[in-house]
Write a structure and sequence with these properties.
Layout (H helix, E strand, L loop, with lengths): L5 H27 L6 H31 E4 L2 E4 L7 H21 L4 H26 L6 H24 L1 H5 L3 H30 L4 H36 L5
Antiparallel strand pairs: 1-2
Helix pairs in contact: 1-2, 1-8, 2-3, 2-8, 3-4, 3-8, 4-5, 5-7, 7-8
């Protein structure tokens, strides 16, 4: 971990605080709204809240680790010698990223066999993507190790994108008209928000940055992507489940 300016430290500190608030508020919103959801869609909304709950917990751990890594006094930021634990973020992703795809599959009301098949294949690809990216993230620098592992993690990512836009297209087109647009938007939110992760991951290779600037880009960038991919995406899942619950044809 590189030394940071006071402004850089505060920016990341506030981003983590925002992440905690967004995730925990989203969890309350989803779970308190369960009474408005038909039984067949409740599991999707429960998992939606579970994703943001897990993320909120890990952001609390990330926040504590960040505070422990630095001493701030009179506008000066010094390293304490305690390592900032980047593994919290990857443990969170390993648990939540596959569940994000399961949310979308469950709320689409596919056949049982198709639901199981797509949940296993897409969830497994998402887990593999995270596992492959981790060694590069903790390699300790912007070097070949980070690049190779990042490139490998893109393989399952591209498979997920292909599956969402080709493998699920027929299923999405068969959805009720009142939710088809929302499901299509949710698909785009997954792809665009997840694309932000490799962008942040590889950006230091494209634009030379000092240690402090690279840390800000990575930590703030990942936090923004997390809020969009989990909290905002969850709102879309809730809206789809709510609209289907209100429709006699799908409830």
């Amino acid at each position: 971990m590189e030394a940071l300016s006071f402004g850089q430290y505060q920016l990341i500190y506030n981003a983590f605080s925002f992440g905690i608030a967004a995730m925990l508020a989203a969890t309350l919103f989803y779970w308190l709204g369960l009474s408005q959801i038909a039984p067949k869609y409740k599991l999707a909304v429960i998992i939606t809240g579970l994703v943001t709950f897990i993320a909120g917990y890990h952001y609390l751990r990330i926040f504590d680790s960040w505070e422990s890594a630095f001493t701030v006094m009179d506008g000066s930021v010094e390293l304490t010698g305690v390592a900032f634990n980047q593994a919290y973020r990857y443990v969170d992703w390993l648990l939540t990223v596959p569940l994000l795809l399961v949310e979308l599959i469950l709320v689409m009301s596919l056949t049982k066999s198709e639901t199981v098949r797509k949940s296993v294949t897409l969830g497994g690809a998402a887990a593999l993507m995270i596992l492959l990216g981790y060694p590069g993230e903790v390699s300790g620098g912007i070097d070949g190790t980070r690049f190779i592992w990042g490139a490998l993690s893109m393989i399952p990512f591209l498979y997920i994108v292909y599956s969402l836009f080709v493998g699920l297209s027929e299923s999405i087109n068969s959805q009720p008209g009142e939710v088809r647009g929302l499901i299509n938007l949710a698909r785009w939110v997954v792809v665009l928000s997840w694309s932000f992760y490799p962008l942040v991951y590889f950006l230091p290779f494209v634009i030379p940055m000092d240690g402090g600037t690279a840390t800000v880009v990575i930590e703030v960038g990942y936090t923004i992507a997390d809020v969009v991919a989990k909290a905002f995406f969850g709102v879309l899942i809730f809206m789809i489940a709510f609209r289907k619950s209100q429709s006699p044809a799908t409830a």
